[in-house]
Structure formats: structure tokens, C-alpha cells
């Protein structure tokens, strides 16, 4: 018993000595749990050198995404445009590209000096800051001007080109005993300068119309009062424009003059000397077809055609086989238009009251004469 007790006490003493740390020795600290967690590994907490990695602070390190190529080009383009605009603005404030030479191409009725004066380009203007729109507006105030082109020619030239209105007719205005230019869009341009002399106003206007390559419009009512740059609102003249634009080129080119005392009494004279009573501007294509048919049926014989009602046309012809080219002006007759039909073979017709010279009216089918109108 005593031996067993001694062995037990010896074992207990040995265990106590083992459990106590040895004197002079420092016990190693226990490993921290966080180290073990890090060792276990989290991909977010193991970063490459030079990148920030802080565990447990809620900081996240996202990878930077590169800009799309389209966005890069857009930004570069905006920067380039900004630089160009800035450079142009700066240049416009300096005397670079000063417009020292202003050139204009003359038109039929405007000289180069007229055009430059109307353009009124400011002194010291440059090709960069000159207001071409304002130049065009100033020139457009002239009734002759239909369109304006202002071109910059670097380093110092400004070139101005004017397109004139297309003239339709010379209009004899009875109220003022004067003739006016009328454009194809119905704009009054300016009074015409006639030759003067012993010829009548109508003859002078016709001579100018032939020179200008346009029509003559005569016998307009006294209520017509032209104003430069204004559009005509007179029904007889608007009717003439409708006819001339409604005819085919083949017939329109044959017209020398129109008589327009009223919208319902419009008539024209052709180069052949034939006077055509047209009436109001309706059924234009039908009226033209009848005129062409009658001239084909009676070549060089007709002096007068009435197509106010194209369904019932009438005509007058001379006994000879030819009708000379007309003057485009009606010749007044003291006796109401009577006389030798051969004497009227130059195309000058009788009075404008509906009485015509010749051997009598005939309907298109050759029946008895019909009344004009």
C-alpha cells in the first residue's frame, strides 16, 4: 500500500511540474483567429502589391472599366471642334482675311457698280465675320433681283452674283401713259424707258418687248396701278399669266401680245398675224387644241379665231392663201373695223369691240358666221 501511494504521489508531482512553465522561458502567444481566417483565404483580401486591401473596414476595390472606343472618339471630336471654333472666333477679331476686294458680276439691268453699292459691305469686314445674309437682304430690295450668291474667295476677295427676275411682259398702263416691266411671277419691276418719237406708246412698248424678248400686254383697265416690287392683283393681268403658263411651249412661243381689257375679254395676237379671242382663263388646254387644229386645217388663211367657248369655236379667214406676220398691235379703224381684208394681212386687227376684218366669220364646221363672244 505504502509503495503504491508513493508512486501515485510521484506521478502527480511530475504532472504539476510539467504543467507549470519553466522559469526564464517566454510562452509563445496563441495564434489569432483572424490569421487563421486569412489563411483560410478570401479572394477579396489577397491583393497584388500596390493595391489597397483592408479587411473588415467595408472598403471595396473595384477594377476600373476602360472607356468605350466610340466615347473616346466623341470626346476627341468635341475637343477638336472647340479648338477650331475658338481659333476662328479669335481670327474674326483680328484683321486677318480682310475683304479688300469686292467684285460683282453685272446683270442685264444692273451694273457691277450698282450691285456693289446695294450690297453695302461694311468697311473693315473680313471673310470670317462678314454677314452674307444681310448682303443678300439688301440686294433683294431691288425689284430686279430674284436671287443673290455671295462667295468668299480667300484670302481677301468677296464675289457677288445676282440673278435677275425673268421678265414676262412690257405692260402699257393707260392710266399713266407709261409702260412697266412685269416679271413672270407677277411682280412689277420698274417703269420701262421707251424710245420716244412719233410712234404710239403701244408701238414703242412693242419694240421694247421684242428687244427684251418678252410679251406686250396692252388695253389694261385704268384701275391698274403698278408699284415697284409689289405683286399684281389685277384679274386681267393674272389671267394673261395663267394663259401664258398654261399654253404649251409651242403655242406660247408664237404669242406676240395680249389684250387684257378685262378677264373675260382676254385675247392674243400670234406671230402669224392671227388674233385669238380667248376669254377668261379656263379650259386652257382645250382652247389651245382647237386653235392648233384650225390653223392646221386652214394654213396661212386665218386672221381671227374665237375659242371663248372651245366647244363652239369660230374663225375668219382671208381669200388669199397667205397671211403675213403680224405686228402684235391692233390697228384702230374709224369705221369699226371694215375695209379690205387684204389690207389687214399684216396681222394688225380691227378695233377691239369685237368687229374684225376679213370675209366673214365661220364656225369650225364651215356653217354660217357666228357672233363674237
Walk me through what this model shows.
Among the domains are: 101-164, Ubiquitin-like (UB roll), CATH 3.10.20.310; 167-363, Cell division protein FtsQ/DivIB (Rossmann fold, 3-Layer(aba) Sandwich). Strands 6-5-4-7-8-9-10-11-12-13 form a ten-stranded mixed sheet, sandwiched between helices. The protein has 373 residues and is α/β, with parallel strands linked by helices. Helix content is 29%, strand content 18%. It is built from nine helices and 13 strands. Residues 35-50, 331-359 and 366-373 have low confidence and may be disordered. It starts with a helix and ends in a 10-residue tail after the last strand. The radius of gyration is 50 Å and the shape is elongated.
The succession of helices and strands, N to C, reads: HHHEHHEEEEEHEHHEEEHEEE
Question: What integer is the average pLDDT?
Answer: 77
Terminus-to-terminus distance: 169 Å
Radius of gyration: 50 Å
CATH class term of the domain at 167-363: Alpha Beta
What is this structure, in a nutshell?
The protein is of the alpha/beta class and 373 residues long. Helices cover 29% and strands 18% of the residues. The protein has helices spanning 2-19, 33-40, 69-92, 112-119, 132-140, 201-212, 235-246, 249-252, 284-297; strands at residues 101-105, 145-153, 157-164, 167-173, 178-183, 188-191, 215-218, 255-259, 267-270, 275-277, 302-306, 314-317, 361-363.
Amino acid at each position: 500500500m505504502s509503495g503504491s501511494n508513493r508512486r501515485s504521489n510521484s506521478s502527480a508531482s511530475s504532472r504539476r511540474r510539467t504543467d507549470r512553465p519553466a522559469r526564464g522561458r517566454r510562452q509563445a502567444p496563441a495564434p489569432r483567429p483572424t490569421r487563421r481566417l486569412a489563411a483560410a483565404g478570401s479572394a477579396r483580401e489577397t491583393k497584388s502589391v500596390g493595391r489597397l486591401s483592408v479587411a473588415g473596414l467595408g472598403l471595396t476595390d473595384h477594377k476600373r472599366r476602360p472607356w468605350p472606343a466610340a466615347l473616346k472618339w466623341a470626346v476627341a471630336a468635341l475637343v477638336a471642334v472647340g479648338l477650331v471654333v475658338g481659333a476662328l472666333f479669335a481670327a474674326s477679331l483680328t484683321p486677318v482675311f480682310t475683304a479688300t476686294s469686292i467684285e460683282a458680276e453685272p446683270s442685264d439691268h444692273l451694273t457691277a457698280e450698282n450691285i456693289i453699292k446695294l450690297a453695302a459691305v461694311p468697311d473693315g469686314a473680313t471673310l470670317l465675320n462678314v454677314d452674307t445674309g444681310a448682303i443678300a437682304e439688301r440686294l433683294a430690295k431691288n425689284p430686279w433681283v430674284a436671287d443673290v450668291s455671295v462667295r468668299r474667295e480667300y484670302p481677301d476677295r468677296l464675289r457677288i452674283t445676282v440673278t435677275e427676275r425673268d421678265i414676262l411682259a412690257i405692260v402699257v398702263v393707260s392710266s399713266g401713259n407709261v409702260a412697266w416691266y412685269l416679271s413672270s411671277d407677277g411682280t412689277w419691276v420698274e417703269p420701262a424707258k421707251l424710245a420716244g418719237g412719233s410712234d404710239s406708246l403701244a408701238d414703242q412698248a412693242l419694240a421694247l418687248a421684242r428687244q427684251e424678248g418678252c410679251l406686250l400686254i396692252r388695253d389694261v383697265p385704268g384701275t391698274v396701278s403698278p408699284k415697284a416690287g409689289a405683286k399684281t392683283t389685277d384679274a386681267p393681268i393674272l389671267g394673261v399669266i395663267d394663259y401664258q403658263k398654261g399654253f404649251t411651249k409651242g403655242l406660247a412661243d408664237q404669242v406676240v401680245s395680249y389684250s387684257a381689257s378685262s378677264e373675260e375679254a382676254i385675247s392674243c395676237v400670234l406671230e402669224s398675224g392671227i388674233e385669238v379671242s380667248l376669254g377668261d382663263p379656263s379650259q386652257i388646254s382645250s382652247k389651245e387644241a382647237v386653235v392648233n387644229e384650225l390653223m392646221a386645217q386652214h394654213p396661212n388663211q386665218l386672221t381671227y379665231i374665237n375659242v371663248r367657248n372651245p366647244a363652239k369655236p369660230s374663225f375668219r379667214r382671208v381669200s388669199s392663201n397667205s397671211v403675213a406676220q403680224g405686228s402684235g398691235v391692233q390697228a384702230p379703224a374709224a369705221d369699226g373695223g371694215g375695209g379690205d381684208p387684204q389690207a389687214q394681212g399684216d396681222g394688225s386687227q380691227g378695233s377691239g369691240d369685237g368687229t374684225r376684218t376679213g370675209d366673214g366669220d365661220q364656225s369650225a364646221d364651215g356653217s354660217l358666221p357666228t357672233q363674237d363672244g
